[in-house]
Amino acid sequence: MDVKKINERLEESENTPIESDDEWYRTSKWGDWLLDKMPYGWRVYYKFFDIKRWFISTYQRMRYGVSNEECWSLDYTFSKFILPRLKHFKKMKRYGYHPDMTPEEWENTIDELIWTFEYLANDEEHFNPMPDFYQDKDWEFNKEKTPEQLVAKVKVCQEFKDLNLKSVDVKTVLGAMQLWVYNTKYRKVGCYHANDAGGFSIKGTSIQNFNETKSIQKKVRKPEVTVPEILNGGKVTLRNFMDGIRAVESPLNGRLNADIILLKVVK
Q: Cα separation of 261 and 166, whole Å?
């Protein structure tokens, strides 16, 4: 075997340009020309194939019970199936937990599972048929918003002089696991608990992804005493703090307005 001749032939082939008289077109010569000239031409072209694929997948699911599209990325398909059931399992009334874990460890494990499957289900690389096409800045239909954009519409009470209170930065709520608030109008103290390990998010003027069962508020008789205890308390003190307030509890609705002071954020 003459290694020298082999290397020379490889080098020659690498330096020789590929000559072809045939031009490549996605549709046809005039079809590509028309799509180039027509406003949003290629967008309409790709959208047509999205709709076509949806009809084919729907037909396959109706006839065979499963579509080809669902088998292209089974991790994404399984995540879409498991995620809503995990979230329901988290909210439902349960009568036990894993024998090798404490109740707190079991709840944390469920939160981690939910976060993991949310990551898999929302990762565009798992199901985006044209990632390079959608990564172009002109075609980002679901571009991720910055923290400033997410909280742009939120209006809270920045300062309450009667109790010498100042609200924390609204952006710190994003991704937090716990949020303490005080309603200056009705003298109510509230505590939001995140629904999973992903923490809170904000949409418009409302907090999203909070546990509707655990997130409650109570009216306090002496806010000048109760509120400082919250501000100065640690995680252990705040864990059962709401149980020590003798008042009727009511659920929090997530809405933020000019009467709400953001007391404390726990990450």
A: 7
